[in-house]
Design goal:
One of its GO terms (molecular function) is DNA-binding transcription factor activity. The chain is mostly helical. It has ten helices and three strands.
Length: 219
């Protein structure tokens, strides 16, 4: 395998490893051996090391002294902590869209995301559905126009996607639940209704958190 532009090689390696973690191909606390990644992906060791630092920043791996990198453990405490933060971040982003959209065409990216979510749900394709969910978040960034907020959310996206897979795995009906929440949130944004936005986001994140905790309890 050979990685090329537009993303840096390290970024592409980081995304590749993150996908394996998200899909459970790399297990919690499993060691990620640099030399194996170098050989498997035909990349330099320096690029792999940089990729692992990116993944550490994104809460996907822990880099331990004299032991190297291993996949982050996902505990109930981690899940609760993640969703407590994500709830407030998503409210901030949704409020920004509600406050700043002016023309209906500015909301078109969210309509397109809604269509992709629908396709993912109809085909019970968790990958398509979760990718569309991440795109919905990214579409809010221009409205927020806050590089600090964007950086925090982008670094959390792989960890969020990891929990989404846990919530949906074996429960495709959860996509319908998420789809309904998205529809309610979109309407609240159109209505410029911050209290309703907070209500919908909080309920959505709380439900997802409980689904992930239930999945962890069954392992």
């Amino acid at each position: 395998m050979t990685f090329t532009a537009p993303d840096s090689v390290s970024e592409q390696i980081a995304r590749h490893i993150a996908e394996r973690i998200i899909h459970g191909q790399l297990k919690e606390r499993e060691r990620i051996q640099e030399i194996k990644v170098v050989k498997a992906l035909n990349v330099s060791r320096g690029s792999v090391r940089e990729a692992l630092l990116i993944l550490e920043r994104r809460h996907m791996v822990d880099i331990l002294p004299r032991r190297g990198a291993q996949v982050c453990e996902l505990t109930p405490h981690h899940v609760k902590s993640l969703y407590a933060l994500v709830t407030e971040l998503y409210i901030l982003l949704s409020d920004a869209v509600a406050d700043r959209w002016r023309r209906p065409e500015e909301l078109q990216p969210f309509v397109e995301v809604q269509q992709r979510l629908m396709r993912g749900m109809q085909h019970e394709d968790a990958d398509v559905f979760i990718e569309a969910s991440m795109e919905a978040v990214a579409a809010t960034f221009p409205f927020a126009d806050n590089p600090y907020l964007q950086s925090v959310v982008e670094n959390l996206q792989p960890a969020i996607a990891r929990t989404y897979h846990l919530a949906i795995n074996g429960h495709p009906e959860e996509m319908k639940e998420m789809m309904n929440a998205y529809g309610h949130l979109f309407q609240a944004v159109i209505d410029r209704n911050p209290p309703r936005i907070r209500e919908v986001v909080a309920r959505y994140c709380q439900h997802n958190c409980q689904m992930v905790l239930a999945a962890l309890a069954k392992r």
